[in-house]
Design goal:
Blueprint lengths: L1 H20 L3 E7 L6 H20 L8 E7 L4 H13 L5 E4 L3 H14 L3 E3 L16 E3 L4 H14 L4 E5 L4 H17 L4 E6 L12 H6 L4 E4 L3 H11 L9 E4 L6 H7 L7 E5 L11 H12 L7 H19 L4 H8 L3 E2 L6 E2 L11 E7 L8 E2 L3 E3 L3
Parallel strand pairs: 1-2, 1-3, 3-4, 4-5, 6-7, 6-8, 8-9, 9-10
Antiparallel strand pairs: 10-13, 11-12, 13-14, 13-15
Length: 387
């Protein structure tokens, strides 16, 4: 009788172990899926989902299926904090990826610190994430404001601009991008002077109070971080006034992305030089073609947006770290991410073990008209990557 009980107990333990082994790997994905940020967040989530689908088709992670638990961060730090805590405490995710606005990324990083769960920031670019707010469990696979600002300063020197107007959104990304530009200007354009600085609020739609100020300042260049709907609104209000006729607009914020060029079409102005993480019509790495074909099939369009790339890379990094760690323990995942190199459609990327920053680059160039196209395209294209 006692022997039978022991056998049953042993079988029960083995069964429990088998069930645990089959427990899915839960990855939490958070992007703005409604409101103004959805223009970037929805495509980013599509890239996230594409990576999950590919990984599951190959057997998942450690032989376990991946479960993607997706939430709307609402482009709001408070809402994102509450949602991320719920993902961790209720949904029991093993890692969180995503975020769009830098203010949201900082809020998510704080939750990551409190809950001791790894967070990979796939879009937020504030330099604070990998400096002042850096901690054991936060990592970034997007670019950052110091590098973006450095590139913008290089372009000021390249185009020999002298009088600059600085136009940034008044929140973490805009303020840190401004600081990054100002830090780099003496290196590349020591004789350039900022004669006007304006900071509209995040989410602003009416730029009429700002446009006349820039036009009256006599700037030959505008340094901007207006992204997504902010840039679209500025163009629609400023272009009819001839704003872009004589002013060179040098911009971060990925306004060279297909999401923006396809939205504005013929309204996209002259004299814009900007950046993007991916171009559907330009392959920097041989694997990009296959990625673009899969994305085209998933989205049902050839002229795909750039944001899926960032969602895609974030999931690849999460999966690679868990696979390397052979564990879902947050400390082991964090240790695995430090110095981790993976292959991506924009080439191999490595996370710096000290700063937790990936060495991802961006495509930069002027936006020009092309025969037979209803939207602007970047030409020439230059991929600029941190050394």
């Amino acid at each position: 009788m006692k022997h039978t009980a022991l056998v049953i107990a042993a079988v029960g333990i083995l069964g429990a172990g088998s069930a645990l082994a089959q427990e899915p790997i839960r990855i939490g994905g958070m992007y703005p899926l409604t409101g103004g940020g959805a223009i970037y967040g929805v495509p980013a989530m599509a890239g996230h989902q594409l990576a999950i689908e590919e990984l599951n088709a190959k057997g998942g992670i450690m032989g376990r299926k991946i479960e993607s638990i997706e939430r709307d961060d609402k482009l709001n730090p408070s809402a994102a904090s509450a949602t991320m805590k719920e993902l961790i405490t209720k949904d029991k995710v093993h890692i969180v990826v995503g975020g769009l606005a830098s203010s949201v990324g900082l809020a998510m990083a704080e939750v990551s610190k409190q809950e001791k769960v790894v967070y990979i920031a796939t879009i937020p670019k504030t330099i604070q994430l990998t400096t002042d707010k850096l901690h054991k469990h936060v990592f970034r696979t997007a670019s950052h404001t110091d590098f973006e600002g450095d590139t913008m300063a290089q372009l000021v020197g390249q185009y020999k601009l002298k009088k600059l107007c600085h136009l940034q959104l008044d929140y973490a990304y805009g303020n840190d991008l401004e600081a990054g530009v100002l830090k780099a200007l003496p290196k590349y354009a020591s004789d350039a002077k900022v004669v006007l600085t304006l900071k509209p609020k995040l989410g602003a739609t009416d730029f009429n109070p700002f446009i006349p100020q820039v036009m009256a300042a006599g700037c030959d260049g505008v340094l901007s971080g207006l992204w997504g709907p902010h840039f679209v609104s500025w163009v629609k209000q400023a272009k009819p006034l001839g704003f872009f006729d004589k002013i060179k607009w040098i911009s971060g914020g990925e306004i060279s992305a297909q999401e923006i060029t396809g939205d504005l079409k013929d309204d996209y102005p002259d004299n814009v030089v900007s950046n993007t993480y991916e171009l559907w019509y330009h392959s920097h790495d041989p694997s990009h073609k296959a990625f673009q074909e899969k994305l085209t099939k998933k989205l049902g369009m050839q002229e795909t947006p750039q944001w899926p790339m960032l969602g895609y890379i974030g999931v690849l990094y999460a999966a690679a770290a868990i696979e390397k760690a052979q564990s879902t323990d947050p400390d082991k995942i964090a240790a695995a991410l430090e110095g981790l190199t993976i292959k991506t459609p924009v080439g191999p990327l490595t996370i710096d073990p000290k700063t937790h920053q990936a060495n991802i680059g961006q495509f930069w160039g002027p936006m020009v008209k092309k025969p037979g196209r209803a939207y602007r395209m970047m030409d020439p294209v230059e991929y600029i990557q941190p050394k």
